[in-house]
Amino acid sequence: MAELTAQLVSVDRLLWKGPASIVTAQTTEGEIGILPGHEPILGQLKDNGVVTIRPIDGERIVAAVQGGFLSVQGDKVTILADYAIFAHEVNRDEAQAELQNIDDALAKSRAEAELAAVRRSESR
Question: Residue ranges of the ATP synthase F1 complex delta/epsilon subunit N-terminal domain (predicted)?
Answer without folding.
Answer: 5-84
